[in-house]
Amino acid sequence: MPAALAVLTAGLLAFHRAVPNSVGRVGSLLEAFLPWLGLMVPVLLGLALLRRSAAALVALLLPSVAWTYLFGGLLLPEADGAAHEVVAVQHNVSDENTDPAGTARALAGAEPDLIALEELTPRALPVYERTLATDYPHHAVRGTVGLWSKHPLTDSRLLDIRPRGLMETWNRGLRTVVHTPHGEIAAYVAHLPSVRVGAGGLASSRRDESAGLLGKAVAAEKLQSVILLGDLNSTVDDRGLAPLTSRMNAAERGFAFSFPADFPVARIDQVMARSATVDHVRTLPATGSDHLPIAARITLD
To answer: Which phi and psi angles does 149 have, rounded to 5°?
Structure first.
């Protein structure tokens, strides 16, 4: 039995794209928590030792190698900073956050170049603007998302990633140009629709549709360097985000599980790039949100 389970675990890791998504989006659900399959290895190791099964011990090499291939690089230590580097913080601050000023100060304390926020409310927005004004004099807000920057911003506009059936007031996308000392960067801030897990499986059709619209916008972007920051409501392994993630580079190092804040099990907050490398991503201490902030180091090409 341990040997068979080891082979099954290895198969799910190596061939997760083969798991069908037609019923209940089971494939996407598996991919959202794919790194956690690695926990099967120590469990099966204990069973193999208990049963003194040489075959099971050999079979355990399969999931160990598959997991290391997929995720081992994320465990490597952070590399030294590069000359053309941008540090960005991404945070869904929560529309129920009771301490926006404290949240803003905590994010600024990481000393990033860019701070992207989602779930901004009319009541909290002036607090973020006032608290961040000194260190981040440039900002753009559209709907419930915004970007604060140490560098000038131009050409800021609403990005329409609204799925069909949602009201026109649903505005969760922003595109702007950041004028860094290393050149211009098209910066996108997005908050994709939420997903739900129920008896019928994973309900993610609106999120997937929104990801497709965001992917088309990135593909049409004329500036070479692009940074995307946002709450994408899934991990970069989820095939539902493929129209977007196939066009962008994800973090090379760091797991940075960001949700839920009390017991993080997945990184659904993302920093990705095109014509740039997301060298490392890490979580920051908890704020008044149900998400943890993440900070990323990005090297421009």
So the answer is: -145, 145
The residues, ordered by sequence, that sit 6+ positions from 53 with a Cβ below 8 Å of its Cβ are 2, 3, 47
Q: What does DSSP assign to residue 201?
A: E
Task: Give me 185's structure tokens.
Answer: 């960067």
Residue 46, phi then psi, degrees to nearest 5: -60, -40
Residue 247: CB atoms within 10 A of its CB come to 18
Q: What is the mean pLDDT of residues 253-258?
A: 96
DSSP type of residue 266: B
Give dist(CA 194, CA 230) in Å, integer: 13
CA contacts within 13 A on the Cβ side of 104: 22
What SS3 string covers 72-110? HHHHCCCCCCCCCEEEEEEEECCCCCCCHHHHHHHHHCC
Compute the radius of gyration of the chain from its Cα atoms: 20
Q: Does residue 168 surpass a pLDDT of 90?
A: no
186: β partners: 177, 226
Q: pLDDT digits over 124-153, tens only?
A: 999 999 999 999 999 999 999 999 999 999
Determine if the pTM surpasses 0.85: yes
Q: What is the dihedral of CA 39, 41, 43, 44, to 10 degrees?
A: 150
DSSP type of residue 182: T
Q: Which helix (H) or strand (E) holds 158?
A: strand 153-158
DSSP tag of 254: -
* Cα 258 from Cα 102, distance rounded (Å): 19
Whether 17 contacts 239, CB under 8 Å: yes
